[in-house]
Structures are given as structure tokens and as C-alpha cells.
């Protein structure tokens, strides 16, 4: 390849990277202005340019959750977990989406996985307890909450006496999308 061909290729990469950064910044601004549809549209373009960016999938997950589209939020959360399994944020978003989809066992498991990575995360712990509480309301007496539930979350469950069902994560007023939107500044600060 000629030197000119390498230069063009390098310039193309720089242009694409610059475009992705512009889109990411515009999406964050749209989220902060509660323009969730606009943010998701922008993030769709950004993800198409850089599908291996967990940060872009995470932001699109937030936008989808704010729109109440928890199936789409779950899809992006699962990509975040796949791309960055050692970061607890993907498990938080997955747990939140599953909770909103009324899959309380799946939500508890996702929050448990996040707690295994970050045992001191209070919001993750509250999400876990909210899911366990709702799950326990739906099961027959004497049936285990979830086979194989283990790790710090299960150990904390033993004898803690904690009561969930309306705490830091799930107990906000309004619809689920409103709850997702309530914490936008905190979610975007981590990005």
C-alpha cells in the first residue's frame, strides 16, 4: 500500500473516531434534556459506527429504559455484559431491565452478579432486594427463590431481615421510564 493510502486510512479512522465522539456527546446532551427518542436515534448511528463500544451500548440502554422500552434496554445491557463482564454497570442495567419486564428471578441473578463484582454497591444491593421481595411474593411457600443463588448477595440474604420493595432503585414515583430518567445525571457521570 502506498504512503498516501495509509494516510487516507488513518484520516478515515480519525474522522470516524471524531464522529463517534460527537455523536456520544450529542446523545448525552439529549439524555440530560430528556430528549430520549433523539438520544436513542443518535446512539443508533454511533453504535453502527462502533458496535464494540460498551459505553455506547450503555448509553443506548439508558435511553431505551427512559423510553420504557425495556426489551431494547435489556438487549444493550446484555451487550455491555458481554463486552465488559468485569464491570458491574452492565449487570445493574440488565437487572433493572429484567425487573421492569417482571422477570424478578433474572433481575435478582443479574444484581447478584453485579454484587459479586462490587459487594458494596448500595443501589445494586437494593435492586437485588427489590427483586427478591417481588419474587418471593410470587412463589409457593417452601420453594427456593432461585436454584444456585450464591455469593455475597445470597450470604447477605441470610438473616439480614432486610425488607425491599421501594428503595433506591425501584421505589421511585411514576412509571419505570420515569425511574430510569430520575438518575440520569448519576448514570452519565460514570460514562
Automatic annotation (TrEMBL):
The keyword Coiled coil applies. Gene3D superfamilies: Tetratricopeptide repeat domain. TPR repeats lie at residues 88-121. SMART domains: TPR. This is Uncharacterized protein. PANTHER family: HSP70-HSP90 ORGANIZING PROTEIN 3, TPR REPEAT CONTAINING PROTEIN. Keywords: Coiled coil, Repeat, TPR repeat. GO terms for molecular function: Hsp90 protein binding. It comes from Tetradesmus obliquus (Green alga).
Amino acid at each position: 500500500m502506498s504512503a498516501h493510502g495509509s494516510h487516507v486510512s488513518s484520516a478515515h479512522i480519525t474522522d470516524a473516531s471524531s464522529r463517534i465522539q460527537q455523536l456520544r456527546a450529542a446523545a448525552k446532551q439529549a439524555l440530560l434534556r430528556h430528549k430520549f427518542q433523539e438520544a436513542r436515534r443518535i446512539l443508533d448511528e454511533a453504535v453502527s459506527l462502533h458496535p464494540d463500544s460498551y459505553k455506547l451500548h450503555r448509553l443506548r440502554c439508558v435511553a431505551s429504559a427512559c423510553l420504557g422500552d425495556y426489551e431494547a434496554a435489556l438487549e444493550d445491557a446484555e451487550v455491555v455484559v458481554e463486552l465488559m463482564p468485569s464491570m458491574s454497570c452492565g449487570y445493574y442495567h440488565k437487572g433493572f431491565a429484567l425487573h421492569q419486564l417482571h422477570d424478578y428471578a433474572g433481575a435478582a441473578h443479574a444484581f447478584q452478579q453485579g454484587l459479586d463484582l462490587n459487594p458494596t454497591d448500595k443501589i445494586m444491593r437494593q435492586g437485588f432486594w427489590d427483586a427478591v421481595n417481588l419474587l418471593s411474593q410470587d412463589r409457593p411457600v417452601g420453594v427456593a427463590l432461585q436454584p444456585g443463588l450464591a455469593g455475597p448477595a445470597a450470604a447477605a440474604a441470610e438473616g439480614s431481615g432486610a425488607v425491599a420493595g421501594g428503595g433506591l432503585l425501584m421505589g421511585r414515583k411514576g412509571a419505570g421510564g420515569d425511574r430510569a430518567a430520575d438518575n440520569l445525571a448519576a448514570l452519565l457521570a460514570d460514562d
